[in-house]
Specification:
There is one protein chain. The chain starts with a helix and ends with a strand. A hairpin with a 5-residue loop joins strand 10 and strand 11. About 25% of the residues lie in helices and about 25% in strands. The strands form three sheets. It has a six-stranded parallel β-sheet, with helices on both faces. It has a four-stranded mixed β-sheet with strand order 8-5-6-9. Strands 10-11 form a two-stranded antiparallel sheet. With about 210 residues, the chain is α/β, with parallel strands linked by helices. It contains six helices and twelve strands. The radius of gyration is 20 Å and the shape is globular. The protein has one domain: Rossmann fold (3-Layer(aba) Sandwich), CATH 3.40.50.10420. It comes from Streptomyces cellostaticus.
Length: about 210
């Protein structure tokens, strides 16, 4: 018996005493929660995103589409990055001015291979203002989940306002649940029992978010 069959068997036994005419789950669980907290303009929603990203210790930059290549090049130069991971569908122009070695997102790359890369540049699927969260869904311009978890420096590009939503319910409407979703709220961090914060535990130590108009 496989693990799947064992789990499904337990579910069936747990539901054995539920009458066939019982109220469906979709009706039992109420879905009338707030879709967002308060009313904001588009500009205010973007400002809230920037504020909450910074509160999570992400470094926030703003630029236009035309300024994006030079900004990416400067951020990589400031880190003295010699190599950068590049998802297959990332817009080539974003790295046009960067003097770095480009590393492709390959299936055969090992964790050690990824750990030797200095930085990674990705796009995102959606950004949530109320929680300061960036969501990646493994799209061509975001790459495999692991490339945003192993390198120590992550540059993430968010197009505003089209990729920015106010709340988690609004974000979920844009996301496919079957895709490999990665929810990022600031750089990777944890705290011990004495609340000493340690960054870079299970992801990048530095997260830079570029809000591109």
């Amino acid at each position: 018996m496989s693990s799947r069959e064992r789990i499904l068997g337990r579910v069936r036994r747990a539901l054995a005493d539920v009458p066939p005419d019982d109220t469906p789950y979709e009706q039992v669980v109420r879905r009338d929660y707030l879709r967002e907290h308060g009313e904001r303009t588009v500009e205010q929603t973007v400002e809230l995103l920037a504020e909450n990203l910074a509160d999570y210790r992400a470094v926030v930059h703003r630029c236009t589409e035309a300024e994006l290549p030079s900004l990416v090049a400067r951020l990589l130069a400031d880190r003295k990055a010699g190599s950068v991971l590049v998802p297959s569908g990332l817009e080539a122009g974003w790295l046009a001015q960067a003097d770095v070695s480009r590393v492709a997102d390959r299936t055969e790359s090992t964790p050690d291979d990824l750990d030797r890369v200095d930085s990674v540049v990705t796009a995102c699927a959606v950004a949530i203002a109320e929680t300061g969260t960036i969501v990646l869904d493994g799209g061509p311009d975001q790459g495999r989940r692991r490339i945003s978890l192993v390198p120590d420096h992550h540059i993430c590009v968010v197009r505003v306002p089209q990729q920015v939503v106010a709340s988690v319910p609004q974000a979920l409407e844009r996301l496919a649940p079957a895709r490999p979703l990665t929810w990022i709220s600031g750089p990777s961090a944890t705290s011990d029992i004495e609340l000493d914060r340690v960054e870079g535990v299970h992801g990048p130590r530095t997260l830079e978010v570029l809000l591109v108009n």
